[in-house]
Design goal:
- It contains 25 helices and no strands.
- It is an all-alpha fold.
Length: 415
């Protein structure tokens, strides 16, 4: 593989989410500065670090150069332009046409997340169907498409099939980051516990700079919580998650608090307020939800009430109809009123999917409801809510603690 042309190595590393991807992409661009696809893929990988002017300049140039080569290259670059500008519906629509003309195009698969990022169930279903079709066309020996299909199956709740596909992809290409991530999702649903943690540690040790280093450590922390190794969960949160990882840190700490455990190092409430006040603070519903969790960890009840009022007044239905009651429920829990939280969360049901994120991330809303039910004296209802988890997961110490009657533990106070 090291003898392959730099463009081949760069694309493989990017598809695998390897820590070597950026250096290889930069080498490719430096060696062939007029290659539009090379420039576009480097821009796709670094878009979050670029300001709007640089982003546009790089992609306009990339598209001009790609058009001089061929229609597929130009189409791919245009998709990157739409995706990096967060035009997710347009990206999804473009990808449907792109794959119709160039089936199984692997670099275009890097943008499949656009379908779920639309926040529309119909688009998510279209994305699932497209992934299934492209994977079938590519064949079972194609590790990138097998990896993406594994991710799709995990999010659909077909976790045993997801696990088989992820293992298959990893057997074909052990460094597939998408497959490793899909396996982490499946193992979470199955309660793999220490076995999952051991796999993730081995996988990350081979590439300490992997794109998903922090996220996969977060998955390992969740597995440690699942089987009761709370010190390991706290250690990972403190060692692997940066100050900017507010959402993953809050999701870890809120789970620990719900289970009556000491949280890891926490977020600075002032930092969370700054993030909420920033232009993008409420641009995406899932991001706002994560900031609400960070406030809940700090027992910032008044901040939560203010955020709930903002969400309730928002013109976007997902904010008004789903996020607002969830945030208000978090406020009620931090104020020691679990019964009020039950009333707010109990009627949402599958509507919580509108918060965004993926199954593993949204599950924390169900965790919160279960804890509130127990603290409100409705243990049987809480047990019924979590029965599918305690009956199917190999390790579920966390769920057992959620269902354990105890005096409500005070949430972490403001620092």
């Amino acid at each position: 593989m090291d003898d392959a042309p730099v463009e081949e190595r760069a694309v493989t590393a990017l598809l695998a989410l390897s820590g070597r991807a950026l250096s290889l992409l930069r080498e490719w661009v430096a060696g062939d500065p007029d290659c539009g696809v090379a420039r576009a893929l480097l821009t796709l990988a670094t878009a979050d670090r670029l300001d709007d002017a640089v982003l546009k300049e790089q992609l306009v140039r990339a598209h001009r150069d790609a058009r001089a080569v061929g229609e597929r290259q130009a189409s791919l670059v245009y998709g990157v332009f739409l995706h990096t500008h967060r035009q997710y519906r347009l990206t999804a629509d473009h990808l449907v046409g792109h794959f119709a003309r160039w089936p199984g195009d692997e670099p275009a698969g890097l943008m499949l997340g656009a379908f779920s990022s639309c926040g529309d169930a119909a688009y998510r279903a279209r994305g699932d169907a497209l992934t299934e079709r492209q994977s079938a066309l590519a064949g079972p020996e194609n590790w990138p498409w097998t990896s993406w299909l594994a991710s799709t199956r995990a999010e659909q709740g077909r976790v045993r099939e997801a696990r088989e596909l992820a293992v298959q992809a990893l057997a074909q290409y052990p460094r597939s980051g998408v497959a490793a991530h899909a396996l982490a999702h499946a193992d979470h649903e199955l309660g793999a516990g220490p076995a999952s943690v051991a796999f993730l540690d081995r996988w990350l040790a081979a590439d300490p700079h992997a794109v998903q280093l922090r996220h996969l450590n977060w998955h390992a922390a969740l597995q440690s919580i699942a089987c009761g190794d709370f010190p390991d969960a706290r250690r990972r949160a403190d060692a692997a998650l940066a100050r900017a990882d507010v959402g993953m840190r809050a999701a870890t700490n809120w789970r620990l608090l719900l289970a009556g455990q000491t949280p890891a190092g926490r977020s600075d409430p002032a930092h969370v307020r700054e993030l909420l006040a920033a232009p993008g603070g409420m641009a995406e519903v899932f991001h706002t939800f994560n900031l609400a969790l960070a406030l809940a960890v700090e027992a910032a009840t008044e901040d939560l009430h203010r955020l709930a009022r903002r969400a309730a007044a928002d013109e976007r239905p997902d904010y008004r109809e789903v996020l607002a009651p969830v945030v208000l429920a978090l406020a009620e829990i931090t104020a020691g009123r679990p019964g009020a939280a039950v009333d707010l969360l109990g009627g949402l049901g599958e509507q919580t999917e509108r918060i965004g994120g993926v199954r593993v991330e949204r599950e924390i809303v169900q965790d919160t409801l279960a804890r509130a039910l127990v603290d409100a004296g409705e243990h049987a209802r809480a047990a019924g809510l979590l029965h599918h988890r305690t009956a199917t997961r190999g390790h579920h110490t966390y769920e057992d603690l959620l269902l354990a009657a105890r005096a409500p533990a005070p949430a972490a106070g403001p620092r």
